Amino acid sequence: MTSIAELVVGGLPEQWESFGFAKLSSEGARTLFSLGDMALVVDSSHEPGMVSWTLVGSPAQPALIDGVATSYAANTAPTSSTARTGAPAGRVGCLGVDHVVIRTNDLERTCAAIADATGAEVRRVRDAGGGVTQAFHKLADVVVEVVAGGEHVEATHLWGFVVNVADLDALAQWAGPDVVGVPKPATQPGRRIATARSGAGLGVPFALMDVAN
């Protein structure tokens, strides 16, 4: 089974540390933070934004998945249950990544490339309205949401991600409204989501969700 080992973003690690993520290590331009069963790599040699991801267990190993920069790690990543009981949650209370978002102009092509590289076929397709269509794959416990329409993008790319947190209300209160928006109902029944705002200075579209009741 293919899973995601790392998400790599550009920008300053201090912003993620201030947000409350648990710092694991730092070497050169790369600083690692805990995302539960995977790691967030903040690479200060890149401009803010999503850069690439690292996969584990892929049957094929292309360097680009329809334009998305991809690297591969040995199949030694911990299971999600191990990670969620042993990995530091940090002040943010991160329990793991809920989903990763990819933007594309060609939903069918991008989804086919993901399926070819990972073995994970599309699970469902959703008309989100306004000319936007979403398709969903699943890599281990993490949903990969592919979005097309709404606006033209220069190239297929990793766009943002969402993490699950232990206490969304407490986090929003602690961070303040300039950093985390007011929690609101998510698309998933019984769950809520709050968006990291520009005051967080992360440079990545990023949101937080509570766990299902």
Word description of this protein:
With 213 residues, the chain is α+β, with helices and mostly antiparallel strands. The chain has one domain (3-210): 2,3-Dihydroxybiphenyl 1,2-Dioxygenase, domain 1 (Roll). It has helices at residues 13-19, 80-86, 107-118, 168-175, and strands spanning 3-10, 23-27, 30-34, 39-43, 49-56, 64-65, 68-73, 94-104, 124-129, 132-139, 142-148, 157-165, 184-185, 192-195, 206-210. The strands form two sheets. It has an eight-stranded mixed beta sheet with strand order 9-10-11-8-12-15-14-13, with helices on one face.
Keywords for this structure?
15 strands, alpha+beta, 213 residues, 2,3-Dihydroxybiphenyl 1,2-Dioxygenase, domain 1
Overall form: globular
The helix content is 10-25%
**What distance lies between the first and last C-alpha atoms, to the nearest angstrom?**
28 Å
**What's the CATH superfamily, by name?**
2,3-Dihydroxybiphenyl 1,2-Dioxygenase, domain 1
Topology of this structure?
Elements: E1 3-10, H1 13-19, E2 23-27, E3 30-34, E4 39-43, E5 49-56, E6 64-65, E7 68-73, H2 80-86, E8 94-104, H3 107-118, E9 124-129, E10 132-139, E11 142-148, E12 157-165, H4 168-175, E13 184-185, E14 192-195, E15 206-210
Please outline what is shown here.
The protein has helices at residues 13-19, 80-86, 107-118, 168-175; strands spanning 3-10, 23-27, 30-34, 39-43, 49-56, 64-65, 68-73, 94-104, 124-129, 132-139, 142-148, 157-165, 184-185, 192-195, 206-210.
